[in-house]
Write a structure and sequence with these properties.
The chain is of the alpha/beta class. It is built from 13 helices and ten strands. The strands form two sheets. The chain has a six-stranded mixed sheet with strand order 5-8-7-6-9-10, sandwiched between helices. Strands 1-2-3-4 form a four-stranded parallel sheet. Helix 7 links the parallel strand 7 and strand 8. It is globular. About 35% of the residues are buried.
Length: about 325
């Protein structure tokens, strides 16, 4: 079949496409033959969208029951990444509604599970805030402040120029933080990145050498630290991260930051209109929304409460053993 297709190729793109499909098919056959010699009935796999599609098809072909939990909620809104699975535990109701209409999601049974990491907000309370390491240019302590605004960012990668990870995008984020730090001096303003290197710490702290209410958290000793900081915060600013969505699901007010070099409307294009009230178009609207959130403006609070309802799933993660008990219901 491959040799027959070779005769109809018109350019190099057709050739590479054929090679990709051939490799995909060979992997599928190899996995199918492997699993047909086993008595496996169920497979639970991790990081759903990264699970190899030839392997997923091989499991389905052998009638092996598969289950996956949605790791990145906003994948429901795009066709870039999809899944092939029997039972899919969506991150919440709105993600299920969009995902079931998304042709890149090939599933037999979708369930509005919820974001399981929301349980980490309550579990993080065992970690005292003062036990977390923060950097401050004026030797201020985190407990010098009783109210906090947190910024969630990615990290700086000097080896590429990807959206949100380049030096220009980082400086744009830091400029946003300087503006908020200046306008809300009675709040401790925290920057929490997914990771940060020693050289980047110096770059960031040099930029805030005269800002006494700015704190950089470079403590990655425990997974619960990010959740502890967010739980303590009155308001959260976030780039496009799953933690930002988890904060919304927990009940926090989150403002998504848009327009980082080199992409405009990054969050606005990634989320449906339900989220757009929380994605300011410019600096003026950002500051306006920030003030409304901090004074608990009634209309704004209702919008966030309604979004929380749309986001949440059916599971109460505070119940003991609720995750394994729910998963067990989908096994055969």
């Amino acid at each position: 079949l491959v040799l027959k297709c070779l005769t109809s190729l018109r350019n190099s793109k057709h050739f590479f496409g054929l090679m990709f499909l051939s490799l995909f098919y060979l992997k599928f056959i190899a996995w199918k033959e492997y699993f047909c010699r086993t008595d496996i009935k169920n497979v639970i796999y991790d990081f759903d969208v990264l699970f190899p599609k030839p392997l997923a098809l091989a499991l389905e072909s052998n009638k092996i029951n598969t289950l996956a939990i949605q790791e990145r909620p906003n994948t429901s809104f795009s066709s870039i990444q999809g899944v092939i699975v029997d039972n899919y535990l969506f991150a919440g109701e709105i993600y299920k509604n969009y995902g079931e209409k998304n042709k890149s999601f090939i599933i037999n049974n979708g369930y509005s599970f919820g974001m399981w990491r929301v349980s980490l907000f309550e579990k993080s309370m065992t970690l005292p805030l003062e036990a977390i390491t923060f950097r401050n240019s004026k030797n201020k302590k985190i407990n010098d402040y009783s109210n906090f605004i947190t910024f969630l960012g990615h990290f700086y990668d000097n080896k590429n120029n990807k959206a949100g990870f380049n030096i220009i995008a980082l400086k744009e984020l830091l400029n946003n933080i300087k503006k908020i730090s200046s306008d809300f001096r009675n709040f401790g303003v925290i920057l929490r990145l997914k990771s940060v290197r020693k050289n980047d710490i110096k770059l960031i702290m040099d930029m805030f050498d005269k800002v006494e209410n700015f704190f950089l958290c470079d403590d990655y000793s425990e997974d619960s630290i990010s959740y502890r900081i967010c739980k303590e915060s009155s308001l959260i600013f976030s780039v496009l991260t799953s933690l930002g969505e988890e904060c919304l699901a927990f009940g926090k007010k989150v403002i998504f930051l848009d327009n980082f070099y080199p992409i405009s409307n990054f969050c606005r294009d990634a989320f449906p209109k339900d989220f757009h009230f929380a994605i300011p178009k410019n600096e003026i609207s950002l500051l306006k929304l920030c003030r409304k959130c901090l004074i608990n403006d009634i209309e704004t609070s209702i919008k966030y409460k309604n979004l929380k309802t749309k986001i949440n799933g059916k599971i109460d993660f505070n119940k003991k053993n609720i995750i394994p008990d729910t998963i067990e219901k989908f096994l055969i």
